[in-house]
Amino acid sequence: MTRARALDSPALIRSLLLSNPHDLPLLTERNPALAEALLSGNLDAFSRVLLEQQRERALREQERLRLFTADPFDPEAQAKIEEEIRQRNVEENMSIAMEEAPESFGQVTMLYINCKVNGHPLKAFVDSGAQMTIMSQACAERCNIIRLVDRRWAGIAKGVGTQRIIGRVHLAQIQIEGDFLQCSFSILEDQPMDMLLGLDMLRRHQCSLDLKKNVLVIGTTGTQTHFLPEGELPPCAKLACGAGQEQPPDREAAGTIKHSVKDLGRKKR
Predict the structure, then answer these.
(1) Annotated catalytic residue, options 23, 127, 150, 200
(2) What's the mean pLDDT when you consider all of the chain?
(3) One biological-process term from Gene Ontology (predicted)?
């Protein structure tokens, strides 16, 4: 069977993708719609999604050819041609990066540690880019320190979004390994993360992040505590890790499919 015929056969494409374990994770990440149809076990569903994406790609290719044959003095055509060239450069840059630095496309595990506040075990997010240490209102209630909130310090926390600060706990103990450290918390009304250790706390206790050893070092005591592995992260951290850049699905699908068909050709030879 020729490569051209292979690319026209949804059944064969589906078989090739299922038989190549290296392609499935890439397809799942970059083209979830096609991956879902592939793993559903329904050939008709897979064929519908694949053919729709192929039609969209063909229409874009026709538009691209039309632009290249359009009036060279048409500003709209020139702008679209410029964008096409820019996008090609971006894709070439991405291809080189995937070849030379594939690890940059993986998910980065956020830095969390185990700790305790008022005897209650927590998973705290370590963020040296955050100005202040924060705790959710729900977590403060669980740790029984909500009674210490000074509501005169209410306000608005601004970052990627905005959240209401209901007040501040001026002093409480946080336990990291065997150390009991003094800490203050700004209490946020609606925060899915239990606690975030910000720069105020990290500076106060001269903490350092040793990413080679994968530990947080408490400089004032020398105590080290390991950052949590991905499997032990809280649900809110796992959701954040799953977010990423979207890729045009049909273009990514085409690349994955061509790669599989090329592998088939090598096996036959």
Answers:
(1) 127
(2) 81
(3) proteolysis
